[in-house]
From TrEMBL:
Domain Mce/MlaD: residue ranges: 42-113
Any one Pfam family match given in the protein's UniProt record, by short name: MlaD
Database matches in SUPFAM superfamilies: Methyl-accepting chemotaxis protein (MCP) signaling domain
Gene3D superfamilies per the UniProt record, alphabetical: Methyl-accepting chemotaxis protein
Ranges in coiled-coil conformation: none
Record keywords: Membrane, Transmembrane, Transmembrane helix
Signal peptide coordinates: none
Protein name: Phospholipid/cholesterol/gamma-HCH transport system substrate-binding protein
The species this protein was found in: Rhizorhabdus histidinilytica
Ion transport as UniProt keyword: no
Record's keyword annotation contains Transmembrane: yes
Transmembrane feature ranges: 7-29
Length: 315
């Protein structure tokens, strides 16, 4: 009986320890779960080099790992990658994810960066229940994506270079190079003449500069003459023009005021003057006749009658 009791006691102790261990493991697992945060990343490029458990770095600091990599049947152009990072990792608005290679081993990792100080955290759940970190192409991803286009361009460039460097064009290029070589030799032979021409050009430029300076001085002198002589004369001319205009305006006003008198003078006084002129003419003629009589017969001719003829009696 004692042996059986000991076995029961030992079994109970072992069972209690197992339960305690299980509770500790569950508690530890819950603590770990509470100390991490999960995010989804949707890559449109190839995720070659990534695998479950690959590291996740934030600005070069390891902060977590990849938990899951899944294809998306509804959107086959995307690959969903779920990551788990430390609770204190600042996943804020502006944070982006890129794929970066690790050396030349072919293994890749996810790099997180771009968080802005003071920005709110990324907390809005995505289509799979976890917040989504946006992506941006990495250097390797951009290179891989642009590799086909780059190869096509290199191939096209190679074909065009082949066409350009055919036999006919090679002969033309050889002729051009020969002409260039000849031209270089001619220029070398005419080096002294070119140097002399450069010296002469320098002298001409200096003379042109002096002439420009003299023209400037002449312009300043002309401006001074304009300011000292022409401007006062123009001012006097303006004053004379203003005075003449004022005189004309005064004369016009005077003529306007004198128009009634001029009209009366022309209609009344002028006929009377004409009549007076006729009377004076008649008086002048009468005086002329009297003067003639005085000359011929003296005062008697004027005062007396005409001389009677001598009387002769009839026989």
């Amino acid at each position: 009986m004692e042996t059986r009791s000991n076995h029961v006691l030992v079994g109970g102790v072992v069972l209690a320890l197992l339960v305690a261990l299980l509770v500790f493991i569950v508690w530890l697992a819950g603590f770990n779960v509470a100390s991490i945060q999960r995010y989804d990343i949707f890559f449109k490029t190839s995720v070659d080099g990534l695998a479950k458990g690959s590291p996740v770095n934030f600005s070069g600091v390891p902060v977590g790992k990849i938990e899951e990599i899944k294809l998306m049947p509804d959107s086959p152009e995307f690959v969903r990658v779920r990551i788990a990072v430390d609770q204190d990792t600042p996943i804020l608005q502006g944070t982006t994810a890129t794929i970066a290679g690790i050396g030349f081993t072919g293994v890749s990792q996810i790099n997180l960066d771009g968080a802005v100080k003071g920005a709110p955290p990324i907390t809005e759940p995505g289509p799979y229940g976890k917040p989504v970190i946006p992506t941006k192409p990495g250097a390797l991803g951009e290179l891989l994506n642009s590799a086909p286009e780059l190869l096509n361009r290199i191939s096209t460039l190679t074909e065009r270079l082949t066409e350009l460097l055919n036999d006919r064009n090679q002969k033309s290029i050889s002729g051009i190079l020969a002409h260039v070589d000849k031209l270089s030799g001619d220029l070398a032979d005419r080096g002294p003449e070119i140097a002399a021409a450069i010296v002469q050009l320098k002298t001409t430029m200096e003379q042109a500069g002096n002439a420009a300076e003299r023209v400037g001085q002449l312009a300043e002198t002309t401006n001074g003459v304009m300011a000292e002589d022409v401007k006062p004369a123009m001012a006097n001319l303006n004053k004379a023009t203003t005075a003449a205009q004022h005189t004309l305006e005064t004369l016009d006003a005077t003529i306007t005021d004198a128009r009634p008198g001029i009209k009366a003078f022309s209609t009344q006084t002028v006929p009377q003057i004409n009549q007076l002129a006729r009377n004076l003419a008649e008086m002048s003629e009468a005086l002329g006749a009297i003067s003639n009589k005085l000359d011929r017969g003296g005062a008697g001719a004027v005062l007396g009658g005409s001389k009677l003829p001598d009387y002769k009696p009839r026989n």
